[in-house]
């Protein structure tokens, strides 16, 4: 949001997030997959990590007795390609820490490829790939990013039961912001009218 003609407010500044490896370690579970674990891979932007994401990950977690969930996070540039507008709102580092903080996630792939490749599936020994009920945008070449797991028969759609999306949250923020600005303009007009009346009284 614009900060007004007077430049930066001393109260509402935009802080620059600084990522360190230590910060990631603090958030990471540090758990390695154990024998008998079902390794489940999910991928996405996970932007403005919200209850819709948590509900989805919880449902995925319930698919196996011993789930080990790996979340693939796409780079900012990739998210912007398929989401457009000003997305992502949070950068890759902020999104990484948000997802790592979720109890259902065991590991995060930072800057995961958009297409779920054979190399990725083999490297992490993935037994199941899940996606929510949101639209799957084709890859740059028009191909299905889930083609490989579908061919292997390990792809599954999971309904989180939540209709909350990042888009919806952003719309709510903008609506609240506009209402707040309209309310403040009215308040400011009243205050100016009072000041003007006081000045007139002082003159008399």
From TrEMBL:
Keywords: Lipid biosynthesis, Lipid metabolism, Nucleotidyltransferase, Phospholipid biosynthesis, Phospholipid metabolism, Transferase
EC class name: transferase
BP GO annotations: phosphatidylethanolamine biosynthetic process
EC number of this enzyme: 2.7.7.14
Superkingdom of origin: Eukaryota
GO molecular function terms attached to this record: ethanolamine-phosphate cytidylyltransferase activity
The keyword Lipid biosynthesis appears for this protein: yes
One GO CC term, this protein: cytoplasm
UniProt xrefs under CDD domains: ECT
Pathway connected to this protein: Phospholipid metabolism; phosphatidylethanolamine biosynthesis; phosphatidylethanolamine from ethanolamine: step 2/3; Lipid metabolism
Occurrences of domain Cytidyltransferase-like (ranges): 42-132
A Pfam short name: CTP_transf_like
Family, per entry: Belongs to the cytidylyltransferase family.
Protein name: ethanolamine-phosphate cytidylyltransferase
Gene, per the UniProt record: Pcyt2
């Amino acid at each position: 949001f614009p900060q007004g003609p007077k430049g930066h407010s001393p109260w509402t500044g935009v802080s620059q997030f600084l990522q360190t490896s230590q910060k990631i370690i603090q958030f990471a579970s540090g758990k390695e997959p154990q024998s008998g674990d079902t390794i489940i891979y999910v991928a996405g932007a996970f932007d403005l990590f919200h209850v819709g994401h948590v509900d989805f990950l919880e449902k995925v977690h319930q698919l196996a007795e011993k789930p080990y969930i790996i979340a693939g996070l796409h780079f900012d540039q990739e998210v912007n390609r398929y989401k457009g507008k000003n997305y992502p709102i949070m950068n890759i580092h902020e999104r990484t820490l948000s997802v790592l903080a979720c109890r259902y996630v065991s590991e995060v792939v930072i800057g995961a490829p958009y297409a779920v490749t054979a190399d990725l599936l083999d490297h992490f020994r993935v037994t199941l790939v899940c996606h929510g009920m949101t639209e799957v945008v084709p890859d740059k070449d028009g191909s299905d990013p889930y083609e490989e797991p579908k061919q292997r028969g390990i792809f599954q759609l999971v309904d989180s039961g939540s209709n909350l999306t990042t888009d919806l949250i952003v719309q709510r923020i903008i609506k609240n912001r506009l209402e707040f600005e309209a309310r403040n303009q009215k308040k400011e007009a009243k205050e100016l009218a009072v000041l003007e009346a006081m000045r007139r009284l002082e003159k008399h």
